[in-house]
Amino acid sequence: MIELKDFKVLSDLSPKELSELDSKIRRIKYGRGEIIFQEGAPAFGFYLVFEGHVKLVKRTLGGKKQILKLVGPGEIIGETTLFDKGVHIAYAKTLNKSLVGFIERGEFFDFLMRHPAVSFRFFEKLSEELKAFQCKLAERSYNGSKERLARIILKLGESGIELSRTELAEMAGVSSKTAIRTLGELQERGVITVDDRKITVLDPKSLEAMAEPFPFKLEDNLII
């Protein structure tokens, strides 16, 4: 489990300032597969992931799902509604046992007024994710399913996050059949091994040759 000082968006704060902010955070334990917030629900603040992993998922009108991002310790979720006071456009669900902190919008804004440097870190964070989503949009338009899956599998291998085949398909924006077929092909070639939900990368260079990485590096516990 990490501490508040380990969050990049809060890295400019002194121990005293971190202690002040910590007093405003309510920590909540979640089991595997629990909902943190629902799509369409009013947003009253944002969340900090101290332990575990969480997926942010968007549902379509047709009932399909798209995993927008996966986050681990040191990442935040629900921040996109922090400044517009809107509703959540996706739902957040734990992948495993997690410890998540919640801070109410009003209390955080009061803190920002006295510590404006944090605002710049937040804008830096939002800018980074916006660039990543722009790259993913281009990837969906121009890259094939195998290239998209290869990039995601590489990132999963680096992070240690385990996804089901359905979740992997939802992350890459392909059908479950395509994900299963591609995993089978890669396993036959000795590029990966698949044991239930765990994918082990045996030949990262082969995956790197297939994938088109983003032109910048995201934080280790963030997969988009």
What does this structure look like?
With 224 residues, this protein is an alpha+beta fold. It has 2 domains: 4-135, Jelly Rolls, CATH 2.60.120; 143-214, Arc Repressor Mutant, subunit A (Orthogonal Bundle), CATH 1.10.10. 39% of the residues lie in helices and 23% in strands. It contains 7 helices and 11 strands. The strands form 3 sheets. A 5-stranded antiparallel β-sheet has the order 2-7-4-5-11. Strands 1-8-3-6 form a 4-stranded antiparallel β-sheet.
> Residue share in helices?
25-40%
Q: What low-confidence regions span 5 or more consecutive residues with pLDDT below 50?
A: none
Q: What would the CATH topology of the largest domain be? A: Jelly Rolls
CATH architecture descriptor name of the largest domain: Sandwich
User: How many H/I helices?
Assistant: 7
Mean pLDDT: 94
> What's the CATH C level of the largest domain?
Mainly Beta
Estimate nothing, just give the exact number of structural domains.
2
CATH homologous superfamily placement of the largest domain? Jelly Rolls
Overall geometry comes to elongated
Report strand order across the widest sheet: 2-7-4-5-11
Query: Structural class, from helix and strand content?
Result: alpha+beta
Radius of gyration: 18 Å
Give the total of beta strands: 11
Separation of the first and last Cα atoms: 22 Å
How much strand? 15-25%
Helix/strand order: HEEEEEEEEHHHHHEEHE
Major sheet summary line: 5 strands, antiparallel
